[in-house]
Specification:
By secondary structure, this protein is of the alpha/beta class. The protein has two domains: 71 residues, Transcription elongation factor, GreA/GreB, N-terminal domain (Helix Hairpins, Orthogonal Bundle), CATH 1.10.287; 79 residues, Roll (Chitinase A, domain 3), CATH 3.10.50. The strands form two sheets. The chain has a five-stranded mixed β-sheet with strand order 5-4-3-7-6. A hairpin with a 2-residue loop joins β6 and β7. The longest helix is centred in the N-terminal third of the chain and has 29 residues. The protein is elongated, with a radius of gyration of 21 Å.
């Protein structure tokens, strides 16, 4: 991903960029890890620079390349954390409707039961059942109640799903 793509933060209508407290903690941990790695790489680059001719010094060149990658990631994470609106799903008062942080069980058109949790963009992991708040599925389900049938716009065309359960974490 180049810097232009990485620098543009996908947001929902209204300019919100949501994440869960767990997502915020994960980004903060990654930020701190990257800072520590940057410090280590700076030491390597300083050592390599002291070895003489930098034009043919592989340690120096690789270190400088790695520093650029780390700096880019640090800028990205810093922007994400600065612009994020952290929402604790456990604090959701209206638990009978689908909102950010809900764990939703639905029946698809093949009558297969699927359970997903709606999370922030950086937290999405389909293999773990976590979908982005900006995904077509999540956007279609927002504000739905148990028993509602919603239409999801997919690349293969519209698809209907029926909401069968909505859960939120306990306080």
């Amino acid at each position: 991903m180049d810097e232009d793509e990485e620098g543009s933060l996908p947001r929902l209508p209204g300019g919100k960029f949501y994440m869960t407290p767990a997502g915020e903690a994960a980004l903060k941990a990654e930020y701190e890890t990257a800072k520590a790695e940057r410090h280590r790489v700076v030491e390597i680059v300083a050592w390599a620079a002291g070895n003489g001719d930098r034009s043919e010094n592989a340690d120096y060149k690789e270190g400088k390349r790695r520093l650029r990658e780390i700096d880019r990631r640090l800028r990205y994470l810093g922007q994400r954390l600065k612009q994020a609106e952290v929402v604790d799903p456990a604090a959701q008062a209206q638990r009978d409707r689908v909102f950010f942080g809900a764990t939703v069980t639905y029946l698809n058109e093949r009558d297969q039961e699927v359970t997903v949790t709606i999370v922030g963009v950086d937290e999405a992991n389909l293999a773990a059942g976590k979908i982005s708040i900006g995904s077509p599925m999540a956007l279609a389900m927002l504000r739905a109640r148990v028993g509602d049938e919603v239409t999801v716009r997919t690349p293969a065309g519209p698809s209907s799903v029926e909401i069968t359960a909505i859960r939120y974490p306990e306080n």
